[in-house]
Design goal:
By secondary structure, the chain is α/β, with parallel strands linked by helices. The protein has 5 helices and 8 strands, in the order ββαβαββααβββα. Strands 1-2-8-7-3-6-5-4 form an 8-stranded mixed sheet.
């Protein structure tokens, strides 16, 4: 995993190049060390970009129970902590069309204070939960390609992420 150089450094933003699914999982494990109860992580990227693979690494890093798999058909899965850390709530909002109204049935606002919530496809749907969130954008080559290279941009929003050192993710 390597940091992608900027022409101008942006506070709260980290750009990385990930070259394999194993590196994506490792990024998730590293990211887990920065997360705490109350954190919202929004993942965006094309189908097959690596959102669930990243979340698998988060689950490993947080030490939660159960295999982290795509919750597309159940919408959300809760993975309780095996230790004293927060549970992981993994949401796939792909099939949800509306905004926060449709998400209210999931009670994410109730779960947020004691959990780490990761939402795939959450743009325009969960931003109202909190001003403090980590946006993770994963870009990959589209079309018929075996290219495993992903460009990952992590952007910390709000007071929670104002002073977070995201550069530790490229170590």
């Amino acid at each position: 995993m390597e940091a992608v150089p900027h022409s101008q450094a942006e506070p709260g933003v980290q750009n990385l190049t990930v070259t394999s699914p194993d590196q994506m999982r490792e990024l998730g494990r590293r990211l887990a060390k920065l997360l705490r109860a109350g954190d919202l992580v929004m993942l965006s990227g094309e189908l097959g970009a690596g959102k669930t693979t990243l979340t698998r690494g988060l689950g490993e890093g947080l030490g939660v129970r159960g295999a982290v798999t795509s919750p597309t058909f159940v919408i959300a899965r809760v993975h309780p902590s095996l230790g004293d850390g927060p549970p992981l709530v993994h949401v796939d909002a792909y099939r949800l069309g509306g905004g926060l109204d449709e998400m209210e049935d999931l009670d994410l606002d109730v779960s947020l204070p004691e959990s780490v919530i990761v939402v795939e496809w959450g743009e325009g749907k969960v931003e109202e939960l909190t001003d403090d969130r980590l946006q993770v954008d994963i870009h990959r080559a589209v079309g018929d390609t075996a290219d495993e290279v992903r460009r990952v941009t992590l952007t910390g929003l709000g007071e929670r992420w104002a002073n977070a050192d995201l550069s530790v993710l490229s170590a």
